[in-house]
Amino acid sequence: MSGRPLTYPAPSAVLELLKPITWFPPMWAFACGVVSSGAAIGANWGVALVGVLLAGPLVCATSQAVNDWYDRHVDAINEPNRPIPSGRIPGRWGLWIACAWTVLSLLVAASLGSWVLVAAALGLALAWAYSAPPLRLKRNGWWGNAACAVSYEGLAWVTGAAVMLGGALPHAPALWLAALYSIGAHGIMTLNDFKSIRGDTEMGIDSLPVLLGPDGAARAACAIMALPQVVVIGLLLAWGQPVHAAAILALLVGQAVLMRGFLRAPVEKALFYSGFGVPLFVGGMMVSAFAVRGFA
Fold first, then answer.
1. Which residues sit opposite 269 in a β-bridge?
2. Would you state the pLDDT for residue 188?
């Protein structure tokens, strides 16, 4: 009101920085790991709940704060209304929040055991490596998207299963599913880069839409999302789970229909496909988790 610059960020700006909408994928993957473990949830519901919160509002939120701090110059071009470039998160508060959320995430992870602490530390290391120099993996779409996919999907899935098993290594089918859906998630990460082509080009960030062009990146994203699901279907058939395999096939067919529109106009349709195609992908994750729930 006085016209002076902000000294502290408003809680609403901090929440926007942490991006609750992005918490769903790792929380969902953690839940898939919980289901795939086959362990009784009733006796361990508290641990499962804390683990889900660790995956989303803590580790994932940390990655968002880190990314927005180190992307503030790119965001000033692409999305100047974001909390940091708009000044609603003033000074170095973006960095301080990222550091504080990192420490909080590690403390909560430690309360769940050494296995979860190691997994959370790895996920946080990937989050910082993705955005922060000197590595700044996001400068290359292949490496950056791989780091996000592993952290958001595979690592969260395996951690969820291990937590329910008391720190034991999950069974091989669950590990295969976590790995395959991590590969598929690489394509999902590419969808987020279509909105930033201009800023990425100006700032020298080689996202896949910049490296391959919008059409090439769209084809690559669709192939990377679809092929692992084909392998999942084959594995479920080999494991004697034809009903679950058929369900994932139906979900994949639905994705293929939506992919046709995305491939015709990738820049315009990337957000649409994220909203309607990706839920079919993640739905298949949970179907596959239930398929292997009874495995030893």
1. none
2. 95
Q: What is the pLDDT of residues 229-271, one digit of tens each?
A: 999 999 999 999 999 999 999 999 999 999 999 999 999 999 9
Q: Which two tokens stand for residue 200?
A: 């990425």
In whole angstroms, what is the distance from residue 186 CA to residue 149 CA? 5
| Angstrom distance (rounded) from CA 250 to CA 254 | 6
Contact 124, 102 (CB under 8 A): yes
Residue with tokens 């055991």: 113
d(CA 16, CA 8) in angstroms, rounded, equals 15
Q: Coil, strand, or helix at residue 237? A: helix
In degrees, to the nearest 5, what angle opens at C-alpha 182 toward C-alphas 178 and 184? 120
| Torsion sign over Cα 225, 228, 233, 236 | negative
Q: Classify residue 43 by burial, with Cβ atoms within 10 Å: 0-12, 13-18, 19+.
A: exposed
Look at residues 218, 278, 227, 213 and name the one whose alpha carbon lies nearest to residue 251.
278
Instruction: Give the containing element (helix H, strand E) for 170.
Output: none
The three-state secondary structure class of 277 is coil
Q: What span, in angstroms and rounded, lies between the C-alpha atoms of 128 and 77? A: 22
Instruction: Please classify residue 104 by burial: count the beta carbons closer than 10 Å to its beta carbon, then call 0-12 exposed, 13-18 middle and 19+ buried.
Output: middle
Q: Are 28 and 282 spatial neighbours (Cβ–Cβ below 8 Å)? A: yes
Distance in angstroms between the alpha carbons of the first and the last residue of the chain: 63
